[in-house]
Each structure stands twice: as C-alpha cells, then as structure tokens.
Design goal:
alpha/beta; Aminopeptidase; 6-stranded mixed beta sheet; two-stranded antiparallel ribbon; globular; N-acetylmuramoyl-L-alanine amidase activity
Length: 348
C-alpha cells in the first residue's frame, strides 16, 4: 500500500526505450543481461522502502525476517488467529478462489531447471535477454526499525520518510509478508521463461530499502519492466485490485515523460491477466472499475527512468479480500497473472 503524498523526482532522468526482441546466439544475450544486473547489485547502497502516513502498527505476533526468511524462500501462509479467515472457501468477484490449504507454502525455487537463460523451451526461454525488477513493497522487518525507516531521505523536491510498515489484515498478516511471498513466486515464474530477475529486497535485510533506492535499483539495472507488489489498506467494503501507473510529472528533478506511455501499456497488460488468473474484479474505489489508476504522487514512479507500475493486489482491510490474500493458492494465481501480463508487455 504505497502512501507517498509527495512526488519523488528522478535525479538523472533518461527516457526509456523498450529494447527490441533480442536475437540470441548461444548464451550471449543472457550473459550480457546477467552482467548488467550484477553491476547493478554491486552498486546498491543498503538503506531502507515505501509507504507513509496511515501505515499499520507493528503486528502483535512475530514473523521471520533476514536470514530465516531468505532461507525459507517462500514465506508460509499466516497462522490462524482469533479472527482468522473462515475455513471454507471465499468467493471472489467473478470466481471461487478460496484457500485450498491455507498453510501451504509456495513451491520451492527450481534452481536446476530455472534461472536466467533457462526455461521450459530449452536453454533460452521467450524472455531471454530481458531484465525485470520486482519490488516487494515495504519489508517484514520494518516495524522493528522505526527509527531507521523514519529517517528522511532526499526525493528531489523535498524530504520524506525512508519507508513505512505498510498495512495488515485484522489478524496480523502484514502487507510486507504478502508482497514478498507474491514477489518470490513471480520471480520463479519469470525465470522459467528465461528472464533475468532482480528483487529490490529478498527478506535478506533488516529494513527497507528506502523509496529512492528502490527506484534506482530498476534504473541501474536498465530494466525492461519494473513492478512493485503491494496490498491496499482501504476501508472495509472496498474490494478488488488496481494497477497504478505514473502520471505526467515534471517537477524539480522529476520527469516521467519518457515512461508514461510504456508504463500505461504495462499496467493494461497486468490488469487484464490478473483479473483472468484470479477471478477477482478490478477495484471500484480506485480507477473507476478499470483496474488502472494514474497517480503523480508516488516517488517510486516519479523517480523511475524505466517502465514501472505498482500492483495493489487487493484490500487487506476488507474481510473477503483478506481471506483471498491469505490463500497460498490465490497468491500463486496472482503471481501467474502478473507474470503473464509482464510477458505480454515484453513480447507484444
């Protein structure tokens, strides 16, 4: 759930042009992409996420972070609490996507058959040579580091908090845990198609990264697409997903002119495939039921020099949506829908 009331400028804007579909000879393209990403990772600084006013307080329970979360790879579903979702399946608008096994973790990452340059079609999948940056919103450890995440960072036009905790369901399943889970599933699906995938955080750091650094990670990787995964914290009764894409912004160092069109196209692809994969309807409270919401107040978008969107997968503050978000089966469907949208955009 991004809360960024102030536009975040890009210190070194360059218009992004989508690379043509690569012509591969052996592993040359994948090697080039891997080197690009490796250089990006080497240059990253370690500071803190996104979010803002209205973020949920620290959950009462505890959740694995750092090395434990990284070792698990796919965080398990939230344990049932006093106000946990009912055991029966919940029905989403347009289809039944309730939890089949609410405690089943995501499938493990298949490092033997997947990864950059490997996929079901052989040594090179359809996305070979493409770089995708996935940005799991917030961080499961942020609530333990309130001093650090409240530190102000320069976003060009002014200063704002490094990050926030995000929202949570009534029984304590956090947006940070949800977004990391879906992001890990999404990475596995994209890598099976041969894409080179970089995460802004992988449960491997105590907090953050900061909002400005999240954008720079995608910029330094020269990503063909960047997608930030979130869940909303709107009022109860507001249901569905929406995909946020950047508005035209030119203020201070911010200039989104080069990414507005490609980002809108990416958002359209994801909105269509996410609806089909999950059976969930686009939100009526944001975007007017189109599944698309243009915003010019999010630093993560305004700082980006590559096509980028935020996916608000559902509303954690609504009981019916919360039941879906806590379902491992639904999260896998959501990751598949987002993956198909990214693939359609890159190959279209």
């Amino acid at each position: 759930m991004p809360y960024e009331p102030n536009p975040s400028p890009c210190p070194q804007h360059r218009p992004h042009r989508r690379a043509p579909r690569p012509r591969t000879r052996g592993g040359a393209v994948v090697a080039t992409a891997a080197l690009t990403v490796a250089a990006a990772v080497a240059s990253l600084a370690g500071c803190g996420g996104s979010g803002g006013p209205g973020a949920a307080p620290a959950p009462a329970g505890t959740e694995a972070t750092g090395a434990a979360a990284s070792a698990a790879r796919f965080p398990a579903d939230p344990p049932a609490g006093p106000s946990a979702a009912p055991s029966g399946p919940a029905t989403a608008p347009g289809g039944d996507r309730g939890p089949a096994d609410p405690h089943a973790p995501a499938p493990p990452r298949d490092t033997e058959r997947t990864g950059p340059g490997k996929g079901p079609l052989g040594p090179l999948g359809p996305l070979a040579g493409r770089v995708v940056v996935i940005d799991p919103g917030h961080n499961p450890g942020n609530f333990r580091h309130t001093h650090e995440i409240n530190r102000l960072v320069d976003i060009g036009t002014n200063h704002k908090e490094c990050d926030t905790t995000g929202t949570a369901t009534d029984d304590g399943y956090t947006e940070a845990a949800f977004s990391l889970d879906v992001s890990l599933r999404l990475r596995a699906l994209l890598e099976k198609q041969g894409a080179t995938v970089l995460l802004t955080q992988d449960g491997d750091r105590p907090f953050g990264p900061c909002v400005d650094e999240r954008a720079r990670i995608g910029n330094r990787a020269a990503a063909d697409a960047a997608v930030s995964i979130h869940a909303d914290g709107s009022g109860s009764g507001n249901r569905g997903f929406h995909v946020i894409h950047p508005a035209p912004v030119r203020r201070g160092a911010a200039d989104t002119a080069g990414i507005v069109g490609p980002s809108r196209e990416l958002a359209e692809h994801i909105a269509g495939t996410l609806a089909r994969a999950t059976g969930s309807a686009p939100a009526g409270y944001a975007g007017g039921g189109t599944g698309l919401h243009e915003r010019g107040d999010l630093g993560g978008l305004n700082l980006s020099t590559v096509p980028k969107v935020f996916v608000e997968c559902g509303n954690m503050r609504d009981a019916k949506d919360a039941a879906l978000l806590k379902s491992s089966r639904w999260r896998q469907d959501a990751a598949r829908g987002i993956s198909e949208g990214i693939s359609g955009y890159l190959l279209g």
